[in-house]
Amino acid sequence: SGKWAKAEAILRELEDECWASTSKLRQVADAMAEEMHAGLASDGGSKLKMLISYIDKLPKGDENGVFYALDLGGTNFRVMRVQLGGKEGVINKESDQVSIPPHLMVGSSHELFDFIAAALAKFIAKEGEDFNLPHGRKRELGFTFSFPVRQLSLASGTLIKWTKGFFIEDAVGQDIVEELKKAMERVGLDMSVTALINDTVGTLARGKYNNPNVIAAVILGTGTNAAYVEKIHAIPKWQGPTPKSGETVINMEWGSFRSSHLPLTEYDQSLDSESLNPGEQIFEKIISGMYLGEIVRRVLYRMAKEASFFGDTIPPNLKIPFILRTPVVSAMHHDISPDLKVVGSKLNDILEVPDSSLEMRKTIVEICDIVASRGARLAAAGIVGILKKLGRDPVKEGEKQQRSVIALDGGLFEHYTKFRNCLESALKELLGEAADNIVVELSNDGSGIGAALLAASHSQYL
Ligand code: ADP
């Protein structure tokens, strides 16, 4: 029928516009490498912030002792104790998760940090004798703070703005390590804050601890970001003395990357313009878990409206932004039952569409595939951009290729198998022969263990 032909036309147009061919991916990778150069040259030189982390010693894998982590990045925070046993690795770890009462997310800085310091003190108070530190030595803490921060040194940084439902006006512009330290003093907790880090940097540390060939980390979760190890002499905007290692970690904030080579559609344009941060985080908006489901919803909405895909009326729930979550897209995409019953039941549960034909279900799986594949392939192109910047992508004649490992973390990468497989095959496609020496590896819990590892590698007692 005419309606079905129209739906088919919308689907083919989507496929066409989302298709990231090998040559397009190469252009994206080149643009990423170029923007990296520009962002390293000067602050504001690129959409990529290329933030200097002040981490100049990543863990080697032989660290010893007990270290702590504090992870604040959402409605929960965690305190963690990690016991490192030299070559034996992580011997023991314990943690407490505490949810933040909503009124503290919008109250005063004093109240929030008092609450956190009290939880930390409680965690330490119940420690056994085994954790007594050598005499005269303070406990050391790595602080993962996943909000935008202008870092001033390894253990200081000012809060640029709150996100994710927090709104504590008097903390903006303040050094958040100072805020934490003052609160620790108020509760009588004597502890050093050794490093202030971002979760991507923690993932890099976590990965490198397990595997010395790790050179970069990428997070693919609700949002997306990347960090990598850079030579100081390749950072024109670096000021001050060069650290002994000659290197530092750069937090790329790659979610804000954009390029004319990105395959964008009308769905992306409207998603962006109706978002809380129009014009920003364009790469993130086509790749990450927060948005993939929403893109699929927008395609389905157009099909409902213009091709009566769901019948004469548009299912009311389909009009609700973000009602279709990425884990649901993933579940539908992985449906292998002959009648696609997972797709059918999701349509029923979420969109309240009780009857769907097999043809409709197949079309929906195809939309999921198109949207997820585009995201995965572009993430792969981003990784190749980093490898290009570091000169690790080509196979050089007569040279033994260095091994490069990328540490990956985040729910999207970990749980969305087809996304992950697509990313890995796009990497092979782009790297050719060099792919033999380049691998991606899952690296869990950078914001916890990674932070403790960075407290260890930057310990004041070394
Ligand atoms: P965050 O990025 O929020 O700190 P995670 O790394 O755990 O935390 O990522 C959670 C995100 O991962 C979710 O918002 C969701 O988009 C995505 N995700 C989780 N599970 C799945 C899944 N099964 N399939 C696809 N995406 C998933």
Please tell me about this protein's structure:
By secondary structure, the protein is of the alpha/beta class. The protein has two domains: 1-52 and 211-443, 3-Layer(aba) Sandwich (Hexokinase, domain 1); 54-197, Nucleotidyltransferase, domain 5 (2-Layer Sandwich). It contains 15 helices and 13 strands. It has helices at 2-18, 22-41, 102-105, 109-125, 176-186, 199-210, 266-273, 282-287, 289-307, 326-333, 341-351, 358-389, 411-415, 417-431, 446-457; strands spanning 51-52, 64-72, 76-85, 90-99, 139-145, 149-153, 156-159, 191-197, 214-220, 224-231, 247-251, 404-409, 438-442. The strands form three sheets. A six-stranded mixed β-sheet has the order 1-11-10-9-12-13. The protein has a five-stranded mixed β-sheet with strand order 4-3-2-5-8. A hairpin with a 2-residue loop joins strand 6 and strand 7 (156-159). It is globular, with a radius of gyration of 24 Å. The protein starts with a helix and ends in a 5-residue tail after the last helix. The site of adenosine-5'-diphosphate (ADP) has 13 residues, from helix 9, helix 10 and helix 13.
